[in-house]
Amino acid sequence: MTTIPRPSRRHLLLAGTVGALTLASTAVLPAVNASAASGCAVTYTTSSWQGGFSANITIKNLGDAVNGWTLGFGFPDAGQRVGQGWSATWQQSGNAVTARNVDWNGSLPSGGTTSIGFNGTWTTANPAPTAFTLNGVACTGGTTPTTPSPTSTTPGPPPTTPPPTTPPPTGTTPVAINGQLHVCGTKLCNRYDRAIQLRGMSTHGLQWFGACYNDASLDALANDWQADLLRISMYVQEQGYETNPTAFTNQVNALVDKAEARGMYALVDFHTLTPGDPMYNLERAKTFFAAVSARNASKTNVIYEITNEPNGVGWSTIKNYAEQVIPVIRANDPDAVVIVGTRGWSSLGVSEGGNSDEIVNNPVNASNIMYTFHFYAASHKDNYRAELERAAGRLPVFVTEFGTVSYTGDGAVDSASSTAWLDLLDRLKISYANWTYSDAAEGSAAFRPGTCAGGTYAGTSVLTASGTFMRNRIRTPDTFPTS
Ligand code: IDC
Q1: Which fold has domain 9-23+175-474?
Q2: Is 309 a catalytic residue?
């Protein structure tokens, strides 16, 4: 295993600036031939800048189910080279490129899709390849086994319009190194199929603290705090999403872009709290996640948290909710990790007298998912830590929210308990986001009141006790495996 300590982001930011000034190209391949029973359709999308590019490829299997696949294509220009790739094993010989599946995406059902990609370089030109093969069979687009026609000119799938996007992450950011994440066993894994831990911060409610999330504050989070992750907390009630779905959806999307531009993962939090029954918001959740997952499908930095803290309802209700919302996301973004809230304010059931057995015995019927655990260090101690450790051996767990203070979100930092918690999360490689990256007048806020109006976020002079504690923890170098 090799590990890369976190260097400065200066190089990345320069690369991004160059990218914004030069060309960005998108190529969607039409069908070039009709085909018989087995077949495939490929969408090849690039963002390109002087000398470099990032390619995203979506493969759709139009034939029978396959277990193990190899995608082949040739670069039209001799100067084009594959660099670091993700979600496949990449090889190039001359201009011929092959991408072989990795463990978790090898089985492709009939009609199934998967997304892979790579960062590459070019010298004189960067045209899109025009012919792809899947397991040796030409990918001819939208033909089906029942409509063979050698002279057909039926076009392939309609071009998808990518969202306006900032230059792709390159270099040494968390997203550039780790790429599209997936769940492997009980862990969150990167493009090398190795377990990683993401450490970052949660916004406060966007309806109240939207002014705290801007280029300067997110530069501070990425560069000064060296965070891997921004959790975007979109309340549904309390003057949140339900009052203006379009505006809140746009606000979330804008923050996904800002996280992407800085190489951070974006955790999209559908912040249900009161009422505690997620079913109350089922239709809103479907509408919201359909829009956000369609718009951000080609990004590699998005993780979906479908309900914040269910409470007062049984696990079977949460599971039922999850099994209705997850397919909405998967229809657009099949390879994104989805995180499911748990009973008792996402305490794995503990705060309502249960434990993680109810999930282990009756898991959500979906793959590539994790389960939420939340704690507030001054309120939740040894018995919660013991249950988390027990659960983590059996379930993929993500701490999408926690506080260094009491569960009210206020009060003093409990340093001893917070340290015990974070040491445990580090040891178990459990990812986390701290509540909150805001200047709310409460102990859990990282910034002193008035900071967001002042506009300076980097350094320690603007921080509360909680902010100082969290910045110290998050700034320590990551050790992301790169092979
Ligand atoms: C708190 C905020 C507080 C707000 C309250 C109600 O800190 O300003 O008035 O919500 O909206 C959670 C929730 C999170 C809470 C947090 C602290 O996910 O929304 O934020 N908390 O109470 N679960 C446990 C604690």
Answers
A1: TIM Barrel (3.20.20)
A2: yes
Tell me how far apart the alpha carbons of residues 22 and 358 are, in angstroms, rounded to a whole number: 53
Residue whose CA is at the smallest distance from ligand 1 atom 7 = 409
* Residues 6+ positions from 86 with CB-CB distance below 8 Å: 116, 117, 118, 179, 180, 191, 300
Q: What is the mean pLDDT of residues 439-446?
A: 98
Residue position matching structure tokens 């992750």: 229
Tokens 């590459």 map to which residue? 120
Average pLDDT (463-480) is 97
Query: SS3 for 281-341, per residue?
Result: HHHHHHHHHHHHHHHCCCCCCEEEECCCCCCCCCHHHHHHHHHHHHHHHHHHCCCCCEEEC
Domain ranges in the chain are: 9-23+175-474, 32-139
From atom 11 of ligand 1, which residue's Cα is the shortest distance away? 238
* Residue 121: cis peptide before it, omega within 30 degrees of 0: no
Structure confidence at residue 153 as a pLDDT band (50, 70, 90): very low
Confidence of residue 47 (pLDDT cuts 50, 70, 90): confident
Among the listed ranges 85-89, 312-316, 470-474, which one has the minimum average pLDDT value? 85-89
Read off the tokens for 110.
Answer: 């009939």
Task: Give pLDDT, residue 140.
Answer: 86
Gap between the Cα atoms of 213 and 254, Å rounded: 10
Q: Given the CA of residue 208, which atom of ligand 1 is nearest to it?
A: 8
Torsion angle in degrees (nearest 10) through CA of 21, 23, 26, 27? -170
By DSSP bridging, strand 199-202 and strand 432-435 are parallel
283 catalytic residue (yes or no): no
Q: Flag whether pLDDT at 468 surpasses 60.
A: yes
Closest atom, ligand 1, to C-alpha of 445 = 7
CATH 2.60.40.290 applies to domain 32-139: yes
